């Protein structure tokens, strides 16, 4: 089973070796380990129960789409948000390939393409209500599998490669980020990073933050 106390020490260790070309295999291996924690166990074919496995355990649709208070979001939004960001940053910014989303949008049954950063409460609830719960889970698994392929193919020197402007432009043109300031700031944020920086934040740490929030929402919905 995933142990929360393991996360920070391993993330710190990753930060200390990720730019060392001689430790590329160790860095990639540790990244894949951290990544496995924030996806379902069948994404990485491990027997260990992961953080996301625990979230899905006993999760019903009501809890999935409920916004307990106006200060909250929904579990559906959290999962959408971290999965869209992983898809965009890994497949466009790192791999310069097509998004997994391109093959999944019709299955997800929503018109939304972006990360959801600029959504109002009403828009969050509408997205949550419209999402097919099982298809979102499957989309997330597909994104996770693709991420693991991309990470496993990294070569010495790749970690220091800066994010390219044309790839940021692709995210905007493909609707992953919107014109609204609450959304578009992501392009500036990602644009200041190299591949190592993307791995340290959107690919790993960012996901655990939103999964932890989802557990809090799940608990609130049981009260």
Radius of gyration over all CA atoms, rounded: 17 Å
Let me know the largest β-sheet: none
Assess the beta-strand content as a share of residues. Answer: under 5%
Shape: globular
Order of secondary-structure elements: HHHHHHHHHHHH
Mean pLDDT: 94
Amino-to-carboxy terminus distance: 26 Å
Tell me the name of the CATH homologous superfamily: dinb family like domain
Q: Number of helix segments? A: 12
Class of secondary structure makeup: mainly alpha
**CATH top level class name:** Mainly Alpha
Low-confidence stretches: none
- How many independent structural domains? 1
| CATH architecture name | Up-down Bundle
Classify the helix fraction into a percent range: 55-70%
Might you state the CATH topology name? Four Helix Bundle (Hemerythrin (Met), subunit A)
Number of strands: 0
